[in-house]
Amino acid sequence: MAIFSLIRISYIFCKYRLDELLDPLANKVLLSLLFFFPKIFFRKQKEIEYRLSDALEEMGPLFIKFGQLLSTRPDLVGEKQSSVLKKFQNDLKPFSTREAIKIVEQDLESPIDQIFESFSEEPLAAASIAQVHEAILKDGESVVVKIVRPGLDKRISADVNSIKFLGGLAELILSDARRLKLMDLIREYELVITAETDLKKEAANAIQTKNFFKENSLLYIPEVYENFSSKNVMTMEKISGIPVTDIEVLKKENINLKALAETGVKIFFKQLFDDNFFHADMHPGNIFVNNSNPENPTYVAVDYAICGSLTEKEQLIIGKMLSEMFNKNYSGVAKTMINAGWVGEDTKEVELEVVIRTVLDPIFEKPFDEIKFGEMLLYLFDATRKFDLSLPTSLLLLNKTLINIEGLGRQIYPELDLWTTAKPFIQSWVAKKYSPKAMFERFKNDSFALAEKAYELPEKIEIILDNLSRLEEYNSEIKNLKKEIKQSKNNNKFIYIGVTALLLVAIIVIQ
């Protein structure tokens, strides 16, 4: 199946003559492929911006997601290409209403007229994974109904298998692909994109995010009607708001664009550090603006299919690294990367610090509102590849989200100073997490694990000595030492347990 999907993607690539986007070497490879599709040579072609858009749409959901990301980055692809790709945000070709109703009735196990008082024939919006219809519940509540595209699972599975095939080849041929653990990244993305087709998971993500923002008015999450939701159908409260990309309307409504852009940054860092649960698909089609208070506007976000989180260790490491970067403490950045295990074991701190300084110093010479934070991290990671850099996949998802947020913020307010907005938030969080009290709490929570390790220590020493005695069969000293440890093992266990108990008592007394 993967090979057929690859052939299909290759054909589409050739069909739209995307060779214009490639470097000369790759261009030669593509031109050789064109001989298999000779009619393409004579096809009348549109401008390249429209060809890329059409090609990504024809390739399917995985590639449409890529188009959504590019649509938020006019600085990378140009204003015209960005504008053309904006159709991917919520303006794709819908599937038929008859199919939509069939899916709703099958999943909710009732005729449509027994579920809803009314159900709109025309979809409100259509995206790569699903489309949305307006409806009214029997109790008169206005809702929107999100319905997954039919046959989507098979299409995504075929495309992912193609990417896995290419990823496997890349790991065999390219050392960079092996170092970046490309197949691990592909498998992680497979989990993400598969989860996106399960609206039960999206409903759970939306409910969890709503709970996190109960006491915070910066972001509103629509109510999910769980009784009218399933794997392929999700019913949500109908919201009103201005699409975040409609800058002219925002200006007419006298929205404070600077405050709006900064609020987006605050939401991101709250989700990252306070909640440790972040919306990882913040493309503009999912975001609306509540204009009830133009001077202090807030957001309404929909589509919670892709959410990310970090382990506590990853969260601490990332917070520490960002704080050191904000303070231009390049030695601290190097230490953090080494301690995190992101670089090779033989990496010398001084050498890593020099590379980090070389990358970051010129960037920090610019005014803060010109610094592109997400891109800066990409430059840093690229420059440190020679130290066998290997990043956790959660960090890559996080950086992709940050690039989205920053790109969106700059669309709203081009002078957005992400650094100044984020710096106090990050520094306050790091100070709190690395305070003596917080570190003591972490030690206390780990005490029982430490006790368990201590209890196992005599056995582990015995095993080590056992192995040594096999290697040194005639070494009587090692054999004797092993015998002594075996005899005293039970006594030692009580000593270790006693020491651990004393530590726990000390913790209680100090509290």
Structural write-up:
The chain has about 500 residues and is of the alpha+beta class. The chain folds into five domains: about 1-90, no CATH class; about 95-150 and about 200-305, Phosphorylase Kinase, domain 1; about 150-195; about 310-435, no CATH class; about 435-510, no CATH class. It has 22 helices and eleven strands. The strands form three sheets. Strands 1, 2, 3, 4 and 6 form a five-stranded antiparallel sheet that branches. A four-stranded mixed sheet has the order 5-10-9-7. A two-stranded antiparallel ribbon has the order 8-11. A hairpin with a 4-residue loop joins strand 3 and strand 4 (about 140-150). Helix 14 packs antiparallel against helix 19 (about 395-410) and helix 15 runs antiparallel to helix 16. The longest helix is centred in the last third of the chain and has 36 residues, at about 435-470. The model is unreliable at about 490-510 (pLDDT under 50).
